[in-house]
Amino acid sequence: MSRSLEIPDALYEQLELAAHHRGLSNIEQLLTGLMAPEEETARRRQAVQRIDQLRARLTATYGEMPDSVEMIRADRER
């Protein structure tokens, strides 16, 4: 479904110019690009929440995990 929006001529010209400066062919691409960072931020927040939930489940099941840095160093020294 498409929607119509009235935009003042001066603003439309600014949007066209901004799209052109970014190498885009139209205002629609410009507006889509402006929305992408918000969607990416939301996706990253969800990923962090899932990681935190997994960490909490693992800690509840197995307790605090030891730091593996010393084991890796010892392995490299062999």
Structure description:
The chain is mainly alpha-helical and 78 residues long. The chain has one domain. It is 74% helix and 0% strand.
Tell how many strands the DSSP assignment holds: 0
What string, H for helix and E for strand, traces the elements in order?
Answer: HHH
- Which runs of at least 5 residues are low in confidence (pLDDT < 50)? none
Percent of residues in helices: over 70%
Tell me the number of structural domains: 1
Number of helices: 3
How much of the sequence is in beta strands? under 5%
Shape descriptor = elongated
Mean model confidence by pLDDT: 92
- The Rg value, from CA coordinates, equals 24 Å
Largest sheet geometry: none
Structural class: mainly alpha
Report how far apart the termini are: 65 Å
Summarize the structure.
The protein is mostly helical and 78 residues long.
Defining traits:
single chain, 78 residues, mainly alpha, 3 helices, 74% helix, elongated
Write the topology of this structure.
Layout: H1 9-21, H2 27-62, H3 69-77
